[in-house]
Amino acid sequence: MEHHSAVPLPRQITQLQAPSEEKSLSLKMSRGYQEYTSHLERQLQQIYDIANKAREKGLDPTLTPEPEIAKDLAGLVEGLVGPEGVAQSIRELSKRLSREELAFKIAEEIVYGKFGHMDAREAAEQAVRTALAIFTEGITAAPLQGVARVLIKSNSDRTNYLAIYFAGPIRSAGGTDQALTLVVGDFVRRLLGLDRYKPTEEEIARFVEELRLYERSLGRFQYKVSDEQLRNAFQSLPVEVTGTESDPVEVSTHRNLLRIETNRVRGGALRVVNDGVVGRSSKVWTIVEKLGIEGWDWLKRVREISEKKTAS
After folding, report:
1. Single pTM value for the model
2. Where are the domains of the chain?
3. What is the pLDDT of residues 27-40, one digit of tens each?
4. How far apart are CA 116 and CA 140, in angstroms?
């Protein structure tokens, strides 16, 4: 397995929505409200100009302020995770696509090289980060810090698959967006001609053991799900949900597995499956079905297990 450096962190982006600047922001508002927002914009620009003059003196590490001003969602996404040029596509596509449709279409454009050539792994990681930034409207740390990296790894039959490494800050995305990130990953791996993730029995058992250990030792998740639900979800996922270690607590039974780099708990990955895939299975299935994405009908089975548990 190859190790790749993470996507460099971009500069901080500050959102300023100015209705007069972009057609995509042509909202109906009273004259008084328009004057109010224009006043805020002018004040912000004055403060920014003062900061620029201060930085020009050369007393700080950089000669310009780190935060940049974004006037809409498109600017936020491009400034947060890129790629360069994606803002224009987002503005054009958002006129006719829903937020979810927009995220998948942008992911497709990234993979197909609209914003510059990338190798398969780089394209997959960029597509996942950008799609998640669109889901979360560019206002959480999840696209930057919640996705640690994306790798292309190998199954035991020598086919290649996509693995998404999650970290703790993925919780800021919310359960539905966490799960939709995996749907994007599945969509991307199909575009790249990759096979699905084929977990071993040991890997499935490791995930269940790890999640229960986390609950006992560190804290609860938003949803309480059964081992059966976890096993059904994990063995059905077409991309590997893994992650960086989050706490110095180690599993005792399923240790030293070839495709899992640590024996410690991976809080981000556990949260994505527990609170996202399983906990929000009904809502995720509704979105997936509406988008016409195939291969996720197993979410209905996960939901049915939950309903049976509730009924009993």
Report:
1. 0.85
2. 30-70, 140-311
3. 577 889 989 989 99
4. 26
